[in-house]
Amino acid sequence: MNPTTATRPFTVALVGNPNTGKSTLFGGLVGVHQHVGNYPGVTVEKRIGHTTFAGRRFEMIDLPGLYSLAPRSRDEMVVVDLLLGRMRGQPAVDAVVCIVDAGNLERNLYLVSQVLELGLPTVLALNMVDVAERRGIRVDAARLEEKLGVPVVAVRANRRLGLDRLMETLAEFAFESEGLSLPKTIAALPGCSEAVCRGCGKSLGRHRRRGAECGAAPAGGEGRRPRRFRCHSPLPEAFEAEVALFEAELADDPLWGSQSPMPRCLLRRLLLDSNGYLQGLLLDKGDGRWASRLAAARARLAAAGVPIPAVETAARYDWARRITEDAVSDRQSSTVTTSDRLDHVLTHRFWGTLIFLAVMLVVFQSVFVWAQPAMDGIETAIAAAGVWVESQMAEGMLRSLAVEGVLGGVGAVAIFLPQILILFGFIALLEDCGYMARTAFLMDRLMAWVGLSGKSFIPLLSSFACAVPGIMAARVIENERDRLTTILVAPLLTCSARLPIYAMLIAAFIPARRYLGGLLNLQGLTLAGLYLLGISAAVIAAMIFKRTLFRGATPPFMMELPSYKWPSPRTVLLRMAERGWMFVRCAGTLILLVSILVWAALYFPRDPNAAPHEQQRNSYLGRAGQVIEPAVKPLGWDWRIGCAVIASLPARELVVATLGVMYNVDDELAPHDRRWRDKLKKITWDGTDRPVYTLPVALGIMVFFALCAQCAATLAVIRRETNSWRWPLFTFSYMTVLAYVAALITYQVGSWLAG
What we know:
This protein is α/β, with parallel strands linked by helices. The chain is 56% helix and 7% strand. The chain has a 7-stranded mixed β-sheet with strand order 2-3-4-1-5-6-8, with helices on both faces. A two-stranded antiparallel sheet has the order 7-9. The longest helix has 42 residues. The radius of gyration is 31 Å and the shape is elongated.
C-alpha cells in the first residue's frame, strides 16, 4: 500500500503532566491545522490537529494535562477510554507521545509507567533539556531509551527543535504498522530544522541541490529503534496475581460473558482505587456482588505486605528511581538556580503579592482600557457599514433587518473580540513563561476563605472587564465543583457593559457633591458602591453554592511550580486566535440570533401610518412590556423600562439605545449629556404628570443591572463551557430573582426614606 493513499490517518495521542510543554509541542507539530471541540456528553475539551510527514497523514490529539491515569471522575475516564480505544466516535489510538520535563524526570515517569502498561507504541519526548542543563541536570537519552525499551527523543518545543526526529519516529511506527519501510529521504516539518538523509547522515537539502538521492542503507545505532512494546507493570507480583485472579472470576461470571469486560490496566485500577469511579460502574452492573470480592482481595494483599493504595506510589517511584539512576547525572539539588531566585521574590507573601497586583493591574488595564480603541474602531466600522447599507437599499423591512438586526448583532459579537484576544494573549504569555502557577499559589489562601482555590482568582478578576473571557479562563481549574462555582458567580462581578447604564443614571440623578476637600465625590462613591455590590454578591453566592449545590471540601491545592522560560510567540498567537475564533463561532451565533429576534419584536406588527412612539407601543416587544408592567411596577418601572430590560437580553448596554428609541432621544446625544438627563426627568407615567424617573427608581435600575444576567454572550459561553443548557438557565434564573429582589428593596426603602 502506498502511504500517500492511506485513507485513515495515523492517530497519535499526546500525554503529559501539566506544565511540561505539551500544548506547545502540539502547536509545533500541527500549526494552525487544528480544531477544538468537546467529547460527546462530557466537558473535556479535545484538541485535534493534522499534519503530513514522509507522505503519511497524522492526526494528533492533545489530551488534557494529568498526573495519573487513575480515573476519579467521568471527565478523567474520557482520557483513559480514548487511550484504550473505548471512546465512542473516536478511532483507536495508534501511538502515544509522552511529554516529560527533563528537569523533573523522576516525577514525570510516574505517568509514563502507567502509559507503558497499555502496550501501545510509545515515544518519550524529552522536553526542556536546555532548562534542565542550566539547573545542572543532564539526561543520557540513549541510556534512558535502553532502559525504558521505547524511543526517547530530545526536543525543545518552544524553539521547534527535535520535532523532525520525533515525527520520523512516529512515521516509522506508521509505516511498520502497514508492513512498509520508511523512505530514505524525508522532508522536514515546516519551520523545523532541515531533515537529514537516514542513509548517509547528510542534509536533505544537499541531496536536492545535487539532484541525487543517497542509496546507502540506514546507518546503525541511532537509526535503530526498539520495536517490541511490553505491557509491563512495576507493581509487585502478589498484586498482579490478584489482578489475574480477578480477571478470571469476571470471565467466569455469566453477567459479563466469556471475556473480561475491561482491559487489565483497568482491573488494576479497581483494586487500587477504593470506592473510585470505576468501582461505581462495576458495582452498578454487578448489582453489588463484587464489593465483597474487592474487599477480600485488598485484605489478602494487605496481609501479604502489599497495602492498598500506598503500594502503587511506592512501586512506581521506586521504578522511576531505577530508570533514572544511571541515565540522569550531575544532579545538584543544592544549586541555586535563576528560578529559585525569582521565586524567592515572586512567591514572597508581601513582595510577591505586590508584584502580582501590579501584573494584574496591567492585565486589567489592557482588557479594560487598551481594548477600547479597537472596540471603538469596530463600532465605527459597523456603523459605517450600516450607513452604506442604508444608502444602497430602499427603506423597508429588509433594510431594517440588515441594519438593525444583522449588523447590530454582528457588532454585538465583534465588539467583545479585542477584549478576548488581549486577555487570552496575556494568559498564554503568563502560562508559557511559568508565572501563572505562582499567581494561583499566592491567592490560594484568600480564595480558600470563600471555598475556592487560587486558580479561581484570575477568571474572577478578568470578569471585571467582561464575564465572557472570564468564564472561558475558568478552564484552568481542574476541580469540576470549583470550576462550575467560578462560572456561576463570574457574571455577578461588574463588567464594562454595565458602565453606560451607570453613567446615564448617575449623571442624571446623583448630585456631584464632594467630600474631604474634594478627594471624594458622591458620584464616584456610588459607582464604587455598585462594584462592591457585585463583589459582595459573588462572594456570598460562591459560599452558598459550595455548601449546597457543590458541597464537598475543595481538594488540597497542589500545583507544580514549573521552571521559568521564555514564552513562545507562536504559541501565544495560536492560543489567541483559537480562543477568538471559538468565541465568534459559538457565542457569536447565538448573539446574532437573539439580536434578530429583538429587532423583529420591535418592528412587527408594522403600521406605516403610526408615529414612532405608537409603533413601539404596539410592537410585540411593546406589548410584552405592557404585559410585564404589573410585575415591574413595584420597582417603580413603567412598560417602557420593561421593554428596555427585555431588549437588553443580548447585551446590557442595549438598555441605553432602547430607551433612546422609546423616548425619541437623538442618537448623537451621549448618556451623560445634559439634554439626555433633562429628557429622562420629563418622562411621565401614561395619562399622568407623575415622573417615572426618580432617585429611588434610578438606584433600583442600577442595582438590578448590577446583579442581573442580561447578556446573551455570557449565557452562550456558559452553555459552551458546561456542555449543558441547565447551567445557563440556572444562572439566568437565580441572577434575575436576585436582581429583582434587590431592586425591589432598593426602590421601596428609597421611596420610604424620601418621604
